[in-house]
Structure formats: C-alpha cells, structure tokens
Design brief:
Layout (H helix, E strand, L loop, with lengths): L7 H8 L4 E6 L12 H14 L29 H18 L3 E6 L7 H11 L4 E6 L4 H10 L26 E2 L12 H8 L6 E2 L4 H21 L1
Keywords: Hydrolase, Metal-binding, Zinc
Family: Belongs to the creatininase superfamily.
GO molecular function: hydrolase activity, acting on carbon-nitrogen (but not peptide) bonds, in linear amides; metal ion binding
C-alpha cells in the first residue's frame, strides 16, 4: 500500500490489525546519464513492489540523503548528518505516536548507511519498537546476481540503469568505462571527485539488457519482501 494513496481513516483501520510500516530512503545526486533521483526511485519502487502482496504501507520516499562528495555536480542535494538524523527521528516519532511499532528502512543510497548506527539510539529509547535497515542492492542474493551478471558494477553504471531510472531521449554511451580506484576519492573535495569521475559513472558498462535487469529486480523485490515479512 502506498501511503500517498491512502487517507487517514484507512491508515487508522490498518493499525487495528498491524503496526508495520516501510520507509524508503533515497538521495538526489548525480548518476551520470541517469536520473538525479535514481536512488530515490529504486528505494521506493522496490519497497512498493515488495509490500504489495503483504498489505504493509510504504511511506513516500525520503528524497534527500548524505552525498557531499557529489556537490560539484549541479542538481545534487546533500543533507548534513545531524539534519538527516533529525528528519528521520521526527519521522519515526510521528509514526510511533500514531501506533506504528515495526519499521523497515529500505535504503537506496550507500552514503545513507552510516545513519543506521545513529538512528539506533532512538530505538534504544523506545523499547516497544523494532526496526530493520535494508540496503536493497547489497542483499546477499541480489548482490550475487549483480556480480554474476557483470562483476564491474559500480555507481551510475549499468547496475542502476533500469527502465524506470532512464531519462527520455538520453542515450547511454556504448563503451565500457575503466573502473575508478575508490581510494582516489578518499578525502577528495567535490571538485576533485568531479575531475576524477568526469561524467559520474564509477566504471563499467552503462547499460545491460532489460531481461538481465528485470531478473535482478525480481530477486531484489523478493529479498526486500522477506525482510518486511520477518519483522
């Protein structure tokens, strides 16, 4: 269930039988030739697809995250850690006050992952709650399928190029880009990051077949569904 397509009375009725809710976490940042909203699109969609048969509501995706290294790319928006933590704490506090007790965060951006340890303090203070933090693309079977499909799978490469993250009229390069050495980015300013990356792809092919991408997606949805079902 998509929370944006429900009214408050429907949510209240749901809470009479269940107290789970899913919160997709995204980012607005450069993804080479793909949408700036790629991480948000993928987090929300995998959450919605996973929850559809379970009847668990999914919040609108949080579209901003922590992505300071890409600020030299126009359109990238980054929150400070303390800002991001405050947003998430306010979000769960609001939902907790209404009766939600089991939270699944479906994360689509690696830069957001460190917030999990900070957010755990809120849950330590609310012992009536449970939560799971799920980096959907890093789930074991999903990642195994990604690497089996093509071992060079990096940011803004083919692995994020789904039909729903592409932009109309934008063609993808046909070449395979040499992979960046990640240590080059350690301590680099946003301007240095842009000079290293150029178009923003970390390396590898820019796209693979839709059949391959749909196969990966099916596994990602199933692993996400298992997380939600288990909490």
């Amino acid at each position: 269930m998509n929370l944006r397509e429900m009214n408050w009375m429907q949510v209240e009725a749901y809470l009479e039988a269940d107290d789970r809710i899913v919160v997709p976490l995204g980012s607005t940042e450069q993804h080479a030739y793909l949408s700036l909203f790629t991480d948000a699109i993928l987090a929300e969609r995998v959450a919605l697809d996973a929850c559809a048969p379970l009847g668990v509501p999914v919040c609108p995706v949080v579209p901003y995250g922590m992505t300071p290294r890409f600020l030299a790319y126009p359109g990238t928006i980054s929150l400070r850690r303390e800002t991001y933590l405050a947003v998430l704490e306010d979000l769960v506090s609001s939902l907790h006050g209404q009766g939600f007790r089991r939270f699944v965060f479906v994360n689509g951006h690696g830069g957001n992952t460190p917030i999990c340890s900070s957010l755990s303090s809120w849950f330590d203070e609310h012992i009536d709650c449970e939560y799971a933090f799920h980096d959907w693309w890093r789930a074991p079977e999903t990642w195994r399928t990604v690497i089996k499909t093509d071992p060079v799978a990096m940011h803004a490469s083919w692995m994020e190029n789904f039909p729903w993250t592409r932009l109309a009229g934008i063609l993808q390069p046909e070449n395979q880009k040499p992979a960046i050495r990640l240590e080059q980015l350690q301590g680099a300013t946003p301007e240095m990051v842009r000079s290293y990356l150029g178009d923003g792809n970390f390396g590898g092919c820019y796209e693979r077949t839709d059949a391959e991408m749909h196969a990966i997606w099916a596994i990602a949805v199933e692993e996400t569904r298992q997380i939600v079902a288990a909490i």
